[in-house]
Specification:
Elements lengths: L1 E3 L9 E5 L2 H8 L4 E4 L8 E2 L5 E2 L3 E5 L8 E3 L16 E7 L6 E19 L4 E7 L4 E6 L2 E12 L4 E8 L3 E13 L6 H30 L1
Antiparallel strand pairs: 1-2, 2-12, 3-14, 4-7, 5-6, 6-9, 7-8, 8-14, 9-12, 9-13, 9-14, 10-11, 10-13
Length: about 220
């Protein structure tokens, strides 16, 4: 586990990053998880300029990115050198100079995120986290020459709406699989807070009326 504290543009959100899945799962405790392993995709499906809906999130690579922007099913690209566990995975390619990037737009706000990666070279990979209020935090994925795990947890919990994958330097082709999400706690809207306040007032009024009734009965 590596602890890195970085700050969003709009909030002081600490980010703890992990390179071990068991430690990451322990850190999120009993929060509900969603796992996306792409195994239901049986043929290569591009997300280069065309959104790919994975269910809990949408993948979209910018048009300036290279051709390696697709869900890679058997038979694998390049003899399977980017495959992670022998099953379908996302093959991504980002290029800092060309402005190529991959964006993952989440359907539900999350407070923690993780995935298995392959072949992240010394150039490295950055994840730009966009918070629900529009602020951003950047975390760096360390070099993963073969296959490895990377995840983060926000502390205190901070809702993340999207993740953009960009090259730290140069260009970077990598595989990604077993994407795991830890759902954020929904924040009540103004109308929901109003309902909460109204219910509390009703409960208080009911308690007071019950107390007065008991006082009257006792006096009688």
């Amino acid at each position: 586990m590596t602890v890195v504290t970085q700050f969003a543009a709009s909030a002081s959100a600490g980010i703890t990053v992990f390179t071990d899945r068991a430690a990451w799962e322990a850190a999120i405790g009993g929060n509900p998880n969603i796992l996306v392993d792409f195994d239901g995709v049986t043929m290569d499906t591009s997300f280069l300029g065309t959104p790919f809906d994975a269910g809990p999130f949408v993948l979209l690579a910018s048009p300036s990115s290279d051709e390696f922007q697709f869900i890679d099913a058997v038979p694998f690209e390049g003899g399977g050198q980017w495959a992670i566990d022998g099953t379908t995975y996302a093959l991504c390619d980002v290029d800092l100079a060309a402005g190529g990037e991959v964006e993952m737009t989440l359907d539900t706000l999350v407070t923690a995120w993780a995935a298995d990666f392959s072949k992240i070279d010394s150039g490295g990979l950055d994840l730009v986290l966009t918070h629900s209020d529009g602020g951003t935090t950047t975390v760096s994925v360390p070099s993963i020459p073969g296959i490895g795990f990377f995840g983060f947890v926000t502390s205190p919990p901070e809702s993340i709406a999207s993740i953009t994958f960009v090259a730290h330097s140069g260009g970077e082709a990598f595989g990604m699989d077993n994407v795991t999400l830890s759902l954020g706690i929904p924040v009540p809207t103004v109308s929901e807070w109003g309902l909460v306040v109204m219910l509390l007032l009703m409960l208080t009024a009911g308690t007071m009326m019950l107390g007065r009734r008991r006082d009257v009965e006792a006096a009688a």
